Known about the structure:
The structure is a homotetramer.
Chain A: E1 8-11, H1 28-37, E2 42-45, H2 57-70, E3 78-81, H3 88-101, E4 106-108, H4 119-130, E5 138-142, H5 144-147, H6 153-160, E6 167-172, H7 177-184, E7 192-195, H8 201-207, E8 211-214, H9 217-232, H10 236-255, H11 261-268, H12 285-297, H13 300-303
Parallel strand pairs in A: 1-2, 1-8, 2-3, 4-5, 5-6, 6-7, 7-8
Amino acid sequence: MKIEHLKGLIAAPFTPMHADGSLNLSIVPGYYEMLKANGIMGAFICGSTGEGVSMTQTEKKKVFEAWASVSKDDNHFKVMPLVGGTSLNDCIELAKYAEECGLYAVAFTAPFYFKPANVQVLAETCRKVANAVPNMPFYYYHIPVLTGVGFTMFDLLNEIDDKILNFAGVKYTHEDFMDFLSCLNFKNGKYDMLWGRDENILAALALGARGSVGSTFNYAAPLYNELIASFEQGDLEAARKKQQQSIDMIRLLGKYGGIATGKAYMKLMRLDCGEFRLPVRNMSPEQFQLFKKDAEQIKFSIFCSQMPAASVIK
Amino acid sequence: MKIEHLKGLIAAPFTPMHADGSLNLSIVPGYYEMLKANGIMGAFICGSTGEGVSMTQTEKKKVFEAWASVSKDDNHFKVMPLVGGTSLNDCIELAKYAEECGLYAVAFTAPFYFKPANVQVLAETCRKVANAVPNMPFYYYHIPVLTGVGFTMFDLLNEIDDKILNFAGVKYTHEDFMDFLSCLNFKNGKYDMLWGRDENILAALALGARGSVGSTFNYAAPLYNELIASFEQGDLEAARKKQQQSIDMIRLLGKYGGIATGKAYMKLMRLDCGEFRLPVRNMSPEQFQLFKKDAEQIKFSIFCSQMPAASVIK
Amino acid sequence: MKIEHLKGLIAAPFTPMHADGSLNLSIVPGYYEMLKANGIMGAFICGSTGEGVSMTQTEKKKVFEAWASVSKDDNHFKVMPLVGGTSLNDCIELAKYAEECGLYAVAFTAPFYFKPANVQVLAETCRKVANAVPNMPFYYYHIPVLTGVGFTMFDLLNEIDDKILNFAGVKYTHEDFMDFLSCLNFKNGKYDMLWGRDENILAALALGARGSVGSTFNYAAPLYNELIASFEQGDLEAARKKQQQSIDMIRLLGKYGGIATGKAYMKLMRLDCGEFRLPVRNMSPEQFQLFKKDAEQIKFSIFCSQMPAASVIK
Amino acid sequence: MKIEHLKGLIAAPFTPMHADGSLNLSIVPGYYEMLKANGIMGAFICGSTGEGVSMTQTEKKKVFEAWASVSKDDNHFKVMPLVGGTSLNDCIELAKYAEECGLYAVAFTAPFYFKPANVQVLAETCRKVANAVPNMPFYYYHIPVLTGVGFTMFDLLNEIDDKILNFAGVKYTHEDFMDFLSCLNFKNGKYDMLWGRDENILAALALGARGSVGSTFNYAAPLYNELIASFEQGDLEAARKKQQQSIDMIRLLGKYGGIATGKAYMKLMRLDCGEFRLPVRNMSPEQFQLFKKDAEQIKFSIFCSQMPAASVIK
Lengths: 314, 314, 314, 314
């Protein structure tokens, strides 16, 4: 399999929910339009931001279908779902379903209850899932802060190279730049290394990253597109300013309790995706008012993503 | 709901697998007989030892059915499944199915990808699942080493008391005896605190524990029954010796790669449950030979569980 | 060297300070009297409770001298200082000074900035210090929560046995009862295993511990002496109640910010040792008032240590 | 105090030892010459690389003197010692001695046995030491991997700003680029942020770092000077290649047991600094031979620092 190297911003969409916590997939077409209108070139669905772990198999399949449906005639928009979880049979079923739906690729992360004892076991685990869809690009999703599995990706590449033929690359959500650069340089850049920490995308670009997957691209794509443009024009000073704005925005996630803050930002740009499911904590209405003020303070409205004029979402 | 306080040994059965990794539930009747013959009074199924996280919903339901079927006329044998996982909808579905099958109770552990931010969120998460089966005893399974969720159970009891009416107690797989004793003494012993670390059951007994859930009870029940008898007779010296034997046995789990060693012990007592699924690593045949020698060294055959003479398993 | 097995309670004294943070060693004679009057049989000085790491070499030597002086004619009162730190030359100097002062033994903990890479290196590090005082009992102080060095003591005993001839045992401040019992049973109880977690001394007694080192023995010796007496009389129910009282007392340490709470308890029994040095945080006067109320709530005055009538401290 | 912003490479010298582990300070003049000849503009002494924690106060003072002596007429070469440790009285004494010797600045790290409970306590701890030398620049050395103290430096700057008037900046040995950029931008770049992770200096440069402190600058200064030159000329491709070479070199530290590998690299460039003290583990002679081969493999001799022709070290 020829490995494609993706370039640009891939969003990790939130999974839209109704007030009662059930899926609200009617929003997906408008969500897709919005991403396109803001220069996003793909979607990483059912990952952390997409709350894959908090959904049933059936729900995940419905999300696959929804994104497959809106993007089916759009070869430039790449959709890849996270199929990972702790039951490999479930992962394999989802991987096959992703193929059936016509999605672009699949992603998988390390099982996070029982954890692989070494990188060989992790490679074997990946192989088992990758082999179920030999004609699809297979990405490993590296996010040790949530999985507790922290082997270097350089060691994983050494272990899978020439053994998992559809291994395409890594969504790298960790801050080990020594490892990341080593992977970028592995066999002259053979694998597609997608950066996954929005708050330091500038450092990743400096090292040679081309594609990125991020949750804040959902609601602040213009900021990152400008950051990348500045970087490509050699204007590091401007790029640093954009990165600092992104950091100020991301700092509010820490202040307001973590990942659910992302859906609060979405509300500010008028794409209401509901709330996160338990065990994630959502803001109280009082906190949301404070958050709104902080978002004004950092001038969120100036750099946030824009809903297209003719959006299907009213 | 009147909270029952269980007494004695509850095994956490291995889930039997065929060589190809599929379920081998034909073994369950014999497994049940064996546990009964060795003085075990219940089964905690689909937990860590039972590889719940590595199975699909459908598979877990089949395991529920198998154990429900063999124990349906046996009121003295308590079966409780772990319904936990990261998707609460899945947990709720399993809890209801456990009720439908006529199992005794359900157990739930903290979601372990997204983790509750504080003990209030954990309590709310428990409540959501417990409320689905208000007439069944609900146990919280405390195993921070695997879930990464380490709030004290004393704090959890304070949070759920009088709010989750079917909260029955805790399977306590952690070594915080300050917390454990505080829970035993909570409201004059209101809750059922089941000890879950076989290697220090003697310490738990000294503090007042009455019931225990363990994986090594599968294959070494006689050892633990003798340990408890010695303790109850006030012969601490003898109890310590038994505990040391249990430790020597458990040390081999560390030496041979962890949890999968349990299935190797089962092979030695001639109840072949197959292997663990990925990402758990199993012994190689060479390692198994070395393990057998070490098991002889610690005289495993003297204190191990015995297959009943008329076992259905040939 | 014949290894002596200590029995009973060894306090880990606070180092008395003046309001300006300088040593206030005039209190030591009265402190010693108080410990004796409350049934304490030794002192572990300059450890965690004694703030060894926060003192200069010169200050530590003065503390050695003060305790040596008050106990010099008292063969039943064993004083051992922690000589450990990160500079082995300093440790060796202190060990020799302890010998010169006539103290009973020395204790050493793992260096905690650079940490030994494996248990062999830890053993070698111990050996270097132990060899400086070959005629003194040498104890290893196992406190992974502060040093970050967590090798099992069973592995350390295997490594040092017959190699460090004055290795006498371990002050075990960790909650791994599997390891602790294995050490108690090592070569038929060859080494002196001193328990170091007051909040679960009952569990340790059940396993066979005889001596203990603790900070709360400073101010609640009667409680622990009664606990031990109940245990020895086979009255576990009474012992558990005492242990729960000890836990309620220790829980206030967590509530009021940690180790410095110990000096606040000392104030309540009218032995003012001043405050902890930075970076330890002390209570504000407002917090101290709240703390006093909580201490009344748990009836601290009923079981706390008593100042002798004729105390030199007025 | 006007805060100076250092630019370029500051080495963290190894402390030279004789074969018996005693100081070998006769090497320092030649060491200094070598650093100068390779474009190094300062020395961070007695830090991690310099084994400060493994030395006595007296030894540290001798190291201060040695470096003060060789650089006393060289205003362009900045020497700053780490005075940190766990005893603040010791730290203060060393800070004053550094001033007496005429060193440029002092550095301090968080106490690492008792750890500050929050960033306010850390700030108060810093203040106490900084106030002892109010006319010297005071740097905080941020190295959570060794101290276990991980507050963000952004929070520390907020806490100390306008309170510690001689606070000059941070030696940042951690990989949190969100925090690092926020500190660079704090009050328009008020503080001097020195980068301390050689393996990702390129990322730091991209964010705006100007000065760096590193251990591998001791033996590979030419590589880093070329990397910086490439970066400044806008040739990122070349800079990435240099960074990869640095990473390949640093990977051998992991392979051969850590920090002591640095002294092995020094031997290869013929500046023998002896071995690390316990508890750091040194290579065996056999391992050194393997290491030499690996060093050849990565072509260490091509980019390593060069001894000046007329070196005083023969």
